[in-house]
Amino acid sequence: MTKKKNIRKLEEGIKLDVSERNNYGGYLCLDTLFSAQKPISNPVHHDEMLFIIQHQTSELWMKLIIHELNEAIRCVQVKRLGRASKILARIKQIQKQLFEQWAVLETLTPSEYMEFRHVLGNASGFQSVHYRQVEFLLGNKNHKMVKVFPEGSESRMVLEKVLDSPSIYDVFIKHLFTEGYQVPEDLVNRDIRQPHEFNQQLMEVLIKVYQRPDQHWPIYALCEQLVDVEQSFQLWRFRHMKTVERIIGFKQGTGGSSGVSFLKKALDLTFFPEILRLRTEL
After folding, report:
1. Tell me, what DSSP letter sits at residue 49?
2. Are 91 and 121 contacting, i.e. CB atoms less than 8 angstroms apart?
3. Which of 14, 125, 187, 258 is the most exposed, having the fewest neighbouring CB atoms within 10 Å of its CB?
4. How far apart are the first and last CA of the chain?
5. Closest of 271, 73, 227 to residue 165, by C-alpha
6. φ, ψ at 202 (rounded to 5°)
7. Chain CA centroid to CA 35, Å
8. What is the DSSP letter of 251?
């Protein structure tokens, strides 16, 4: 009996010329992507590559969240709430990727991390422009965070632009107002460079939506998607804090923060307080 070779034959139509710009590697700019991992420990510590790729992929996922949030904001502004809800559902799935990949970094033991932590200098996730954009787009505006970046730098200009733009919650509240819901006008015309603060009258409006969801379904559904995004963000924050605690304990952060204690404070921040608190009032 003749044995079959364990080789799959190439089909005749498969393109073998990979010199064109529109091939897989060229389209994805993989040469550029793969050249961006540059460990600086000397001699290079094995686990530094893990640390670099972990944070680079996080930045890529956050870049996609920013892309999606901007589109969701635009959709609410043009009254396409169904489309906005779908985009927020996608964001939740992206957040799931960010949450799960903490498990990879958690394989880094304290002794392994100490072998190369010193080469990071003052580098810290606190300085992530993408992370700060996500917070601003969700409504956690903080102009002091902009000052982390040098005046005139591209990072600072990007954050100033987002700071001056409405968040997803700002455009949602304005949509309620234009649709005739009893949202206070001063809330619609507030300074959007400041973080949103809980508003009792807004909560009462949303309570009515939740009491009769079938009559307000697009708004009701969007509220639940916003809650999903907020919860996923908080779970990510918590996992971040616990991962840091697992690897460095209560040491000071590389960027000068108090480390775990600093991250714990972020858990008290909320984006959509009325949508969350109405659950107690229903």
Report:
1. H
2. no
3. 14
4. 75
5. 73
6. -65, -40
7. 25
8. P
Of 190, 187, 186, 176, which is closest to residue 220 (Cα–Cα)?
Answer: 176
Sequence length of the chain is: 282
pTM of the predicted protein model: 0.93
DSSP 60-76: HHHHHHHHHHHHHHHHH
Amino acid letter at 172? F
Written as six digits, the tokens of 87 are 């985009």
Place of tokens 């787009």: 137
| Cβ(254)–Cβ(123) below 8 Å | yes
The one-digit pLDDT tens for each residue of the chain (282 residues) are 566 677 777 777 766 666 666 788 888 999 999 999 999 999 999 999 999 999 999 999 999 999 999 999 999 999 999 999 999 999 999 999 999 999 999 999 999 999 999 999 988 888 999 999 999 999 999 999 999 899 999 999 999 999 999 999 999 999 999 999 999 999 999 999 999 999 999 999 999 999 999 999 999 999 999 999 999 999 999 999 999 999 999 998 888 888 899 899 989 999 999 999 999 999
Instruction: Determine contact, residues 130/63, Cβ cutoff 8 Å.
Output: yes
Please give the single-letter amino acid code of residue 152: G
Cβ–Cβ under 8 Å, residues 162 and 131? no
CB 129 within 8 A of CB 158: yes
Main-chain dihedrals φ then ψ at residue 8, nearest 5 degrees: -90, 125
* Amino acid found at 87: I
CA distance 276 to 274: 5
**Cis status, amide bond into 195, omega within 30 of 0:** no
Residue carrying structure tokens 């930045």: 59
| Residue of 98, 128, 103, 105 whose CA lies nearest to 48 | 105
CA distance 260 to 244: 7
Q: Are the C-beta atoms of 168 and 192 separated by less than 8 Å?
A: no
